[in-house]
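Catalogue entry: protein
Contents: sequence, fold tokens
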Amino acid sequence: MKLLFSLLLICSLGTAYGQQGGTQSTEQFFGQCLFNITNQAEMDALQAEMAQNPNIDMVRLDMNTQRALVITSWLTDLTEQEFVSWFGSYGSSVTCVQVGVYGVDAMNPYPFTNCQN
């Protein structure tokens, strides 16, 4: 009887915990852009700093093409302003920003054309 009661208690706690977690987003977002960083060491330092951000799952900064791709860690939303803020002091050099839902929205192919910003 104690075993049955224990199993029921564990199941009900698991169900309650699962319902609380159900309000979190199950979407990842992506952000991509062009930037202007001409020093490889500074770009590497920025990439390492961005990789420490708990909201970022993956970050790639490419020196040759001066483009960035960031995949988030299950945020509920991602704005262009938030994305640009992750570039810190280099945020003013960021152009051609595209933010979308990863795996749903199409990413603009490189080279980026028809940029609005």
Notes: The chain has a mean pLDDT of 84. The beta strands are 29-34, 56-62, 67-72, 95-101. The first helix runs from residue 2 to 21. The helical segments are 2-21, 40-51, 80-85.
